[in-house]
């Protein structure tokens, strides 16, 4: 070791960069007496690793322009170390990355790679040395942090702890890169490293590891605004979106979503194009996209597909919003945050329940206005009474408006709202694609009851399925249940229909059955009165289920934001926790 037996003074010194290879090296020095670096400026890298300070070590007013190395440093008297007014404002995540890039090609690296032509082997050695420097840097920041904690200077210790977490994040990045190239890498260990990497990345960009209160406040406001805008979009655009969605083929939707995902990947690629973290994100997005496409291809119910795509849109919008928060352009930041707080103020006045993380999970109806209830209020008295009658299995419908009291009308509306699911199942019977077939059956019931069964069989044979006969049999039994029949759902989605037995088909020749069938199918004559009711019920269900699905994710995000807010506020408070 280089021993300094006497006092050393480097007061008001300026250590300037001479050339690219120069570095101020105090490593392995042993300061046996006091050493003073008061108001010294280090313009380039300075290396104090494995130094020993036996007495006073004064770094008062020192300014580090680049990352210093205090790895394995020993301070005999931690309370004798003066770190007051040390300026590390120039040190950030990029400076940590640059330190590793500028220093890992040391003599040891050059000796190991000398004469090696294999790129894979060079890459392996390169990552090993980068990993070593990342760990050394992490230890360097830990040493100073521990000294400050010993001195009960927790506020300054937080700044060095933040740098320590930067080094840890970079260490995880390098670790992932190394594990990615190993054939027998433990996939579960990789997932754990990746998760830690994501966590550190998110905390760094949203709150600077609980050190920047304004940053996490902006992000929290952003998440509230994003969810509010998403719900507003669902309510305002669900009708045109549903029509647009129903008219499109799965392949076209696949292309549209594919373009959205591709644009997100491009944004991330230019942000972190050499990072294994980016590759992991690409993989996850690709897997989610493949699953969505498979579900879209095999599952034919448009309501569930719509919910699935809306949830996907919300997840992508979170990612895009996260990307916007990381844009460094000052003008963009000012405009973006101004618009953010403007919209937040609007939601705070009109939809303050958004601030509650659990609102959408337990009571999604509080976040949106029911289109079904609004449509119900627009119906005439006759239509409302007829709907209430249908729900009570009374199909003796009335063409003219009924003279009923306001209280009775409200009771009828309450009955309809309470039995919305049953009404939906009944109205499904009058699906437009089966309307012409039902009218044929109704015509036979009104004119030639002896031929009803034959007409139904002809329709089934023409359609190459048994959908009409099964639906009519369901009508005869008034089996409009709110419970989900999984088998029936699978069959309907894959266009499989169960053929009725001869005994079941014989029911269509019985007079009682024909009368029931006639009264139910007569509802087709009133269809104009109920036009759009089934559609708005479906739209309400889509919005409600979408809110319930996305609110789970929103609750987790908002709870984490609230936790970060209180932790950041507590860490930066002079009041002891």
Descriptive report:
The protein is mainly alpha-helical and 577 residues long. It folds into three domains: 2-185, no CATH class; 214-369, no CATH class; 371-538, no CATH class. The chain has helices at 93-103, 107-113, 119-150, 154-181, 187-207, 213-247, 250-271, 276-298, 302-325, 330-350, 359-362, 371-378, 381-391, 406-418, 420-428, 432-447, 452-463, 467-476, 486-493, 502-506, 511-521, 533-571; strands at 2-4, 8-9, 14-15, 24-25, 29-31, 35-36, 41-42, 46-47, 52-53, 57-58, 63-64, 74-75, 81-82. The strands form four sheets. It has a four-stranded parallel sheet, with no helix packed on it. It has a four-stranded parallel sheet with strand order 2-6-10-13, with no helix packed on it. Strands 3-7-11 form a three-stranded parallel sheet, with no helix packed on it. The radius of gyration is 35 Å and the shape is elongated. The protein starts with a strand and ends in a 6-residue tail after the last helix. The model is unreliable at 481-496 (pLDDT under 50).
